[in-house]
Amino acid sequence: MRMRTTKRGRRKASAAAILALALAVPLGAQAIASPSDSTGSDRPAATAEQDAGKARQYEVADIGTAPERTRLARTGVAIDEVGKDTVVITAGKAEAAELRDKGYELTARPAPGERSAKAAAPGDYHSYDEMNTAVDGFVEQYPDLLKKEVIGTSHEGRDIIAVKLSADVAEDRDKPEVLFTHNMHAREHLTVEMALYTLEEFAGGYGTDERVTKMLDERELWIIPSVNPDGKVFDQDSGEFKMWRKNREPNEGSSAVGTDLNRNWPYEWGCCGGSSDNPSSETYRGPSAGSAKETKVVQDFVLSRVVGGEQQITAHIDFHTYGELILWPYGFTYDETAPGLSQDDRDAHAAVGTTMADSNGYTAEQSSELYITDGTINDWMWADQGIFSYTFEMYPGSGSPDGFYPPGSVIDRETSRNKDAQLILLENADCMYRSIGKEAEYCGS
Q: In whole angstroms, what is the distance from residue 45 CA to residue 40 CA?
């Protein structure tokens, strides 16, 4: 029997606990979101607080509709969680004071170090170095199925890696390709655990798990475990979580550090009040579209998969925390359809997204049903490359105290919870329109 790697006392949950979670359908949250079109001045005081790990979460009362959430997010704070009539934001003290001055009712939530003993410690998760060691170990264990590539480096010079997983891993076959990206936002460490789980589970299941075997025979899967390694190291490696979201590139002419990588993508960048032009903001979109080095590395990798004029990647998941959601494009408009996204395109996104959500108990919806975002990876993937693209917001759901830092004891449960959803996407990746009964129209014979 194969033994899954465990770490620092992590334990597996019972099947009953997994089923109970899968049956729960939360209202949700969106870690990718939190637009702002601030034209205000730089806020170095807030930035200093964030660099020192002083940003924290606040619950904001009487916010119940998408337009209300969009108006709040346009102040530049990060909306982390969406409930029925409340939201949870991340803000520094100065930003919180500004919101109270604007009439918002804020209640501070306990910081990670102020919670019960159940709360996560940085050592509950693989560090960046431990992540690379684990990946190297999997590649050594499964050399016929896994291949690691360095696809670029971060601002501070750390390797950004992609791991190919396929039964023909040494060859570039003409098969549908699927991409999973993780850890675009620094504090979302559970997503790195998701990547490591998938590598081990799928490679280890080849030859014994019928669905996994079929997919590795018929697909090529690419996994990028950490898009934002500098931010991950900054948030984790000091031994105290810092609630850091962005990358770690300084902003010229400002004391503020970092760009929100999921507002920096070059499609409808800064178009619609779905990001901030303030370098101090949690959702700062950067000085220009695609300006962040990490964005460019992943973008170039995706473009490198165009062979003979055809994009080989057909489907994509960008893993975030938290909210237990599956989201699809577009984020920049409330409309279900828009230029480049027909009704059939939307319906196929929704059909596969809903089926995946049925398998893991998440809520499926268009990204903008929460609030407007622009410059996101999902919108770029679809509009620029025709790749069906989803965001998975992982555990916890709305109302949990665990937030971005759930305890290590839930990692195995919450990563394995997504196995069926991943397989559903892989199984549909050869023709996503099959999900709406239009395979012949769009995919030919």
A: 14
Whether the predicted pLDDT of 28 surpasses 60: no
Residue 388 in tokens: 């069906």
Q: List the catalytic residues.
A: 393
Structure tokens at 259: 């760009």
For residue 247, the model assigns a pLDDT of: 98
Instruction: Give residue 417's pLDDT band: very low, low, confident or very high (50, 70, 90).
Output: very high
Q: Is residue 45 very low, low, confident or very high in pLDDT (cuts 50, 70, 90)?
A: very low
Residue ranges of domains in the chain, CATH in brackets: 44-114 (3.30.70), 120-443 (3.40.630.10)
Question: Does pLDDT of 230 surpass 90?
Answer: yes
Question: Would the pLDDT of 174 be above 50?
Answer: yes
Mapping DSSP onto H, E and C, the string for the chain reads CCCCCCCCCCCCCCHHHHHHHHHCCCCCCCCCCCCECCCCCCCHHHHHHHHCCCCEEEEEECCCCHHHHHHHHCECCEEEEECCCEEEEEECHHHHHHHHHCCCCEEECCCHHHCCCCCCCHHHCCCHHHHHHHHHHHHHHCCCCEEEEEEEECCCCCEEEEEEECCCCCCCCCCCEEEEEECCCCCCCHHHHHHHHHHHHHHHHCCCCHHHHHHHHHCEEEEECCCCHHHHHHHHCCCCCCCCCCCCCECCCCCCECCCHHHCCCCCCCCCCCCECCCCCCCECCCCCCCCHHHHHHHHHHHHCEECCEECEEEEEEEEECCCEEEECCCCCCCCCECCECHHHHHHHHHHHHHHHHHHCCEEEEHHHCCCCCCCHHHHHHHHHCCEEEEEEECCCCCCCCCCCCCHHHHHHHHHCCHHHHHHHHHHCCCHHHHHCCHHHHHCC
Mean pLDDT of 266-277: 96
CA distance 277 to 13: 43
Instruction: Determine the average pLDDT of the residues in 407-434.
Output: 97
Residue found by looking up tokens 């003290």 in the block: 93
